[in-house]
From TrEMBL:
InterPro entries: SMc04008-like_domain (IPR023163), SMc04008-like_sf (IPR036810)
Pfam families noted in UniProt: DUF1244
Top-rank lineage group of the source organism: Bacteria
Protein name: DUF1244 domain-containing protein
SMc04008-like domain span: 25-90
Amino acid sequence: MDKKTEVEAAVLRRLLAHLDANKDVQNIDLMILSGFCRNCLSKWYKAAADDHGLDVSDDDAREAIYGMPYSEWKANHQPKATDEQLTAYNARQHNLTT
Protein backbone atom coordinates (compact mmCIF):
# COMPACT_ATOMS: atom_id res chain seq x y z
CA MET A 1 0.00 0.00 0.00
CA ASP A 2 1.43 3.38 -0.94
CA LYS A 3 1.64 6.31 1.51
CA LYS A 4 -1.30 8.18 -0.08
CA THR A 5 -3.56 5.14 0.32
CA GLU A 6 -2.38 4.71 3.92
CA VAL A 7 -3.24 8.35 4.66
CA GLU A 8 -6.65 8.03 2.99
CA ALA A 9 -7.39 4.87 4.98
CA ALA A 10 -6.33 6.60 8.20
CA VAL A 11 -8.62 9.53 7.42
CA LEU A 12 -11.58 7.19 6.86
CA ARG A 13 -10.84 5.37 10.13
CA ARG A 14 -10.69 8.71 11.94
CA LEU A 15 -13.96 9.89 10.35
CA LEU A 16 -15.69 6.66 11.36
CA ALA A 17 -14.33 6.93 14.91
CA HIS A 18 -15.55 10.53 15.08
CA LEU A 19 -19.02 9.55 13.86
CA ASP A 20 -19.07 6.64 16.30
CA ALA A 21 -18.21 8.97 19.17
CA ASN A 22 -21.02 11.31 18.09
CA LYS A 23 -23.96 8.95 17.71
CA ASP A 24 -26.30 11.79 18.68
CA VAL A 25 -25.61 13.37 15.28
CA GLN A 26 -28.36 11.94 13.15
CA ASN A 27 -28.03 10.95 9.51
CA ILE A 28 -30.68 13.47 8.54
CA ASP A 29 -28.64 16.22 10.23
CA LEU A 30 -25.57 15.14 8.28
CA MET A 31 -27.60 15.17 5.05
CA ILE A 32 -28.93 18.67 5.78
CA LEU A 33 -25.49 20.06 6.53
CA SER A 34 -23.20 18.13 4.22
CA GLY A 35 -25.27 16.29 1.66
CA PHE A 36 -24.02 12.87 2.81
CA CYS A 37 -24.54 10.58 5.78
CA ARG A 38 -23.46 7.25 7.17
CA ASN A 39 -25.70 5.45 4.65
CA CYS A 40 -23.96 7.31 1.82
CA LEU A 41 -20.59 6.24 3.22
CA SER A 42 -21.74 2.62 3.30
CA LYS A 43 -22.86 2.84 -0.35
CA TRP A 44 -19.49 4.36 -1.31
CA TYR A 45 -17.76 1.59 0.65
CA LYS A 46 -19.72 -1.07 -1.24
CA ALA A 47 -19.05 0.59 -4.60
CA ALA A 48 -15.31 0.75 -3.88
CA ALA A 49 -15.32 -2.90 -2.81
CA ASP A 50 -17.14 -3.83 -6.02
CA ASP A 51 -14.63 -1.81 -8.05
CA HIS A 52 -11.83 -3.81 -6.44
CA GLY A 53 -13.48 -7.18 -6.95
CA LEU A 54 -14.35 -7.72 -3.29
CA ASP A 55 -17.59 -9.45 -2.36
CA VAL A 56 -19.16 -7.08 0.19
CA SER A 57 -22.91 -7.12 0.77
CA ASP A 58 -24.93 -3.99 1.51
CA ASP A 59 -25.33 -5.21 5.10
CA ASP A 60 -21.58 -5.82 5.44
CA ALA A 61 -20.85 -2.32 4.13
CA ARG A 62 -23.31 -0.76 6.57
CA GLU A 63 -21.78 -2.70 9.46
CA ALA A 64 -18.30 -1.52 8.43
CA ILE A 65 -19.49 2.09 8.59
CA TYR A 66 -21.84 1.90 11.58
CA GLY A 67 -19.67 -0.46 13.61
CA MET A 68 -22.70 -2.67 14.23
CA PRO A 69 -25.58 -4.14 12.26
CA TYR A 70 -27.73 -1.36 10.79
CA SER A 71 -30.87 -2.72 12.49
CA GLU A 72 -29.11 -2.41 15.85
CA TRP A 73 -28.00 1.14 15.03
CA LYS A 74 -31.52 2.17 14.09
CA ALA A 75 -33.03 0.62 17.20
CA ASN A 76 -30.52 2.21 19.58
CA HIS A 77 -29.44 5.49 18.00
CA GLN A 78 -31.88 6.72 15.37
CA PRO A 79 -35.04 8.43 16.58
CA LYS A 80 -37.77 9.41 14.15
CA ALA A 81 -36.91 12.59 12.25
CA THR A 82 -38.62 15.70 13.55
CA ASP A 83 -40.84 17.87 11.38
CA GLU A 84 -38.13 20.53 11.48
CA GLN A 85 -35.49 18.09 10.26
CA LEU A 86 -37.71 16.88 7.45
CA THR A 87 -38.50 20.44 6.39
CA ALA A 88 -34.81 21.37 6.35
CA TYR A 89 -33.91 18.19 4.47
CA ASN A 90 -36.60 18.74 1.86
CA ALA A 91 -35.53 22.36 1.40
CA ARG A 92 -31.94 21.27 0.86
CA GLN A 93 -32.99 18.62 -1.64
CA HIS A 94 -35.13 21.19 -3.46
CA ASN A 95 -32.20 23.63 -3.60
CA LEU A 96 -29.98 20.92 -5.08
CA THR A 97 -32.40 20.20 -7.90
CA THR A 98 -33.19 23.79 -8.87
